[in-house]
Recover the amino acids of this structure.
């Protein structure tokens, strides 16, 4: 069994594992773990992954580089990377979910700068300012953390991670059924297609969708009910997003504005032209995210009405009446967008002993892209260690 990939993890090889990884057992009494891995029989583990989000792509990257597993990914949409989503409109490229990822996690930074191809990786130089109920815009939120993105869009994260694996990714394949038998995990998709058996199963959908899948799963184990309750305990914010395009370049000193106390109808608005290579000179593209209460109240309203309202509010906040009349628009509703808390660890750990791993920002307990990536890396290592033992 292949348990070490020196060029991928950039760690010192020792026997068959890597120093610095949970797979590393050390040279003292913990060295038994290393010897166990080295003596493990060669076998082919089959891993099923539901969802192709950031956490799933990071886990797949680790598992593929640490084991001889065959990976099968079933993704309900036509894209990769979940809410880190990108669209193109002619020469314009814009993210319409997550906006960037921070560099405050050393392992994630090493992943994107050293292990993956860093071509097109950019930092957003302009700061993040704040706005309040009085309509005052001021400096306030920015820190020393870099705001990282890709010229081609944030979906590059998952594309590059999966691109470094031998995983087979099936898009537009919605999983609707999970069954656990003596031979492993079996999945059924919306078209009646059957997948498996898998020795291990990773579930990357948001907590409510994961809970729904597991609630109806044919898995006779108390761990299932506990895991469902854990997933159901995670609360989410809903976000309705408008994308507003203009045939002029907005001149402001900030990249984005945020309402810290979330007391207004808009939580966040950002200038995509501050991301290098995204928007042609002489144009602007604004990403406007309504706050959760407004998004819930207006989620099913006609999109044109929502866009008109949000464009008018944007003009008032930024102080430029031209913004009320965009040249083109787009929109996206995220009914399950940002987790507000994390799931309790106990039920998740119990499920892992049965070969089922849940992962994502809701497991990390932080609605941040870098947190989802780190959670995926950690989950992949735990699965690799479990397979080795």
């Amino acid at each position: 069994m292949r348990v070490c990939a020196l060029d991928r993890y950039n760690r010192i090889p020792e026997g068959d594992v890597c120093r610095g990884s949970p797979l590393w057992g050390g040279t003292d009494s913990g060295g038994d773990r290393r010897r166990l891995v080295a003596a493990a029989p060669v076998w082919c583990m089959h891993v099923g992954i539901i969802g192709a989000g950031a956490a799933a792509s990071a886990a797949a990257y680790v598992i593929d580089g640490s084991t001889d597993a065959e990976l099968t990914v079933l993704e309900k949409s036509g894209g990769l990377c979940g809410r880190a989503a990108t669209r193109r409109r002619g020469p314009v490229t814009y993210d319409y979910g997550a906006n960037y990822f921070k560099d405050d996690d050393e392992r994630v930074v090493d992943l994107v700068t050293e292990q993956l191809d860093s071509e097109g990786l950019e930092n957003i130089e302009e700061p993040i300012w704040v706005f309040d109920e009085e309509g005052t815009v001021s400096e306030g939120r920015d820190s020393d953390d870099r705001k990282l993105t890709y010229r081609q869009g944030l979906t590059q994260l998952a594309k590059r991670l999966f691109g470094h694996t031998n995983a087979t990714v099936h898009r537009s394949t919605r999983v609707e059924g999970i069954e656990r038998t003596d031979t492993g995990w079996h999945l059924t998709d919306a078209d009646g297609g059957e997948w498996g058996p898998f020795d291990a199963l990773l579930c990357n959908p948001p907590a409510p969708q994961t809970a729904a899948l597991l609630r109806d799963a044919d898995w006779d184990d108390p761990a299932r009910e506990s895991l469902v309750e854990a997933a159901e305990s995670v609360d989410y914010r809903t976000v309705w997003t408008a994308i507003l395009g203009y045939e002029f370049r907005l001149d402001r000193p900030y990249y984005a504005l945020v309402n810290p106390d979330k007391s207004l109808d808009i939580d966040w608005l950002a200038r995509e032209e501050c991301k290098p290579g995204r928007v042609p000179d002489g144009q602007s593209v604004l990403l406007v995210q309504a706050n959760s209460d407004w998004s819930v109240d207006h989620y099913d309203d006609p999109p044109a009405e929502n866009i008109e309202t949000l464009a008018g509010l944007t003009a008032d906040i930024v102080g430029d009446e031209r913004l009320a009349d965009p040249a083109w628009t787009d929109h996206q509703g995220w009914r399950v967008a940002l987790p507000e808390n994390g799931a309790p660890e106990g039920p998740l750990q119990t499920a892992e002993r049965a070969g089922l791993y849940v992962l994502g920002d809701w497991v990390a307990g932080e609605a941040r892209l870098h947190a989802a990536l780190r959670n995926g890396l950690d989950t992949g290592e735990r699965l690799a260690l479990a397979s080795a033992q």
Observations:
- The chain is about 30% helix and 25% strand.
- The longest helix spans residues 369-388.
- Confidence is low (pLDDT under 50) at residues 1-42.
- The radius of gyration is 22 Å.
